[in-house]
Amino acid sequence: MTIYLIYLARNFIKNLIGGKIFDSSNTQLADKAWKVFLALTFLSVKVAASGNPIALPFSFNASMSFTPLLGALIIWLMMKILEKGIDIAEENEFTI
Q1: In the 8-state DSSP scheme, what is residue 64?
Q2: What is the pTM of this model?
Q3: Contact assessment for residue 61 and residue 49, using Cβ atoms and an 8 Å cutoff
Q4: How far apart are CA 1 and CA 41, in angstroms?
């Protein structure tokens, strides 16, 4: 999953360098990225829960990392801002 996040970040930066800031492909990349971060949050719970192969898989440990969850929230907010920016850019095209 980390390699996939690097791939998404590379494509996002490539779009920014190419001048495609308010483009729908950026929102699609951000949509995929926040879902990967959300999945990483739950995978970290499973890894922490299944650290001991003898223990039950449902004995959750309180040491869950909220960093991927915070990353998912930040990227989701960025995606929503980009969506509004795309709407504003389209309005500006029609008014000119």
Answers
A1: -
A2: 0.73
A3: yes
A4: 12
